[in-house]
Amino acid sequence: MKTVIALFDTAADAKYAHDALILRKYDRTDISVVASDLATLHEAPPHVGQIAAGALSAILGSVAFSVPYAGPVLAAGPLLGALGSVGSEEIDQPDWLAKALVKIGVPEPEARKYSDAFNQGGAVVTVRTREIDADNVARLLAACGAVDVEERLRPESRQRPTG
Question: Model's pTM, two decimal places?
Fold first, then answer.
């Protein structure tokens, strides 16, 4: 088994990817979503259409909680179970997500990148899949709007326009 991971700009984008995976018959229990911009779940971006309607209630088994470094967070899937084993004192640390990602099979250097990018805003989707399906899952996540984590972490990409 392999864990495929992707970063999205918003929780709604991550929910769209989640729904696309479900429509292609990937098992819900193998898909994790963690997002902090929960307000976007109630909005329907143009590329999402009807899929995002009622998104918060559609993520079965999700839990909302507060993290000092991210604010309110929604988590679902295997990542939610990993968060439960991380420990409450570790959730108060900026690398809480990296620790949970490592527990579900993401290599530590990659987990740290996604954790850092998540802390800058956005949402993370992971999919546990067979090795042979990993490239297909990665292409599907990219087609759903996944952003380049390396690009997101570059200092110049974090600067906001001032004018």
Answer: 0.75
